[in-house]
Amino acid sequence: MSKELLNALDDLETEKGISKELVLDALEAALVSAYKRNYSQAQNVEVEFNHKTGKISVYAVKDVVETVYDSRLEVSLEEAVKINSAYEIGDKIRFEVTPKNFGRIAAQTAKQVIMQRMREAERNIIYNEFIAYENDIMQGIVERQDNRYIYVNLGKIEAVLSKQEQIPNEVYKPHDRIKVYVTKVENTSKGPQIFVSRSHPDLLKRLFEQEVPEIYDGVVEIVSIAREAGDRAKVAVVSRDEHIDPVGTCVGPKGQRVQAIVNELKGENMDIVEWSEDPSTYIANALNPAKVIDVVFNEQTNSCLVVVPDYQLSLAIGKRGQNARLAAKLTGFKIDIKSESDMLAADEAEEEVGLVSTDDLVDGALVDEPIEAIVDAEEVVAPLVEDPEVEETLVADDETIEELLNGDETDEELEEQDTTED
What we know:
- By secondary structure, this protein is an alpha+beta fold.
- It folds into 4 domains: 2-123, N Utilization Substance Protein A, Chain:P, domain 4, CATH 3.30.1480; 134-197, CATH 2.40.50.140; 289-355, GMP Synthetase, Chain A, domain 3, CATH 3.30.300; 370-421, no CATH class.
- It is 45% helix and 25% strand.
- It contains 15 helices and 17 strands.
- Strands 5-6-7-9-8 form a 5-stranded mixed beta barrel. Strands 1, 2, 3 and 4 form a 4-stranded mixed sheet that branches.
- The longest helix is centred in the first third of the chain and has 29 residues, at 102-130.
- It is elongated and about 120 Å long.
- It starts with a helix and ends with a helix.
- Keywords: Cytoplasm, RNA-binding, Transcription, Transcription antitermination, Transcription regulation, Transcription termination.
- One of its GO terms (molecular function) is RNA binding.
- It holds the Pfam family KH_NusA_1st.
């Protein structure tokens, strides 16, 4: 059995890449536990595995003391000297206690340890293999699904596709081949766990890298992606070579390149726009297919006002505001869209309001020269007040007004006065 075990460990190291020394260390620790469990022993035990012969020996380790209180853990100095006269108090002596039938226990323990080490090694191999695919794209086969996940077979392991990472309204059937984006790889106690996505924006990026060689080579670069999975996406691209059209390169001859991506994503619409250093041009491109007349920026709020023709207002906004929303995600600006007529009406209203200034209003009346008018009025009124006749008239008027306010004259008296005057 021992030589067969050694040969098995050699084969294990060659085929699975599992270190022989690590297995032997684990095996010795497991045999110690097996010995204590099967023989109800509590003393200090050591297991020695001969790497040449494969023989397994069990030793009980005891301390040399003057007076023995626990024979399982201690040995007297008198007995120790009989074994070897050089022993002193405090030394440790190993006594072989290998049971006759320990070979069977050792074989069972060795099997368990080797199987455990094999599982751990396979998990590590799978983890190290798939951690390299994190943030990358892979092709798998749909195997099954439950209320939480869809399980995708990636070859050596099953990946999980959660509902949040699925494309809305996409139906997954067993044995369907799909491309998924690996978002996270975890090494758990139950083995590696791989999480994949179909709705991640970087899935689109990886698909373009597969279909467009210029993107893979770095001649054309994807600057930004805005995506509403299953419905529509916008991709901003730029060319590092002035002789290469980035948009035409991504579309491909007769639209073959982008059509392959659309087919993979079950009909998701693609808008490929050219990135520009000029924010106005970039925003105008992002609102494609709508035409943009003007872009007015507000640097304080990182927003902009986009003016479009009246007949293209609904096209610029898009269905349920989708076109404007994706353009905002793509460019990083908050976008407000107005029609050309609304913008002209707003400008005219501002101009009309701008003609009247609060500085030109005196008691709510509009005057051309308010300050001079007030001065002239004072110059006219001042001499009149100084005139005696005018002063008497003013005093009389004041007395009449005072009498009216005090109610000294009745309505009948006032009527008689009016009749007399007539």
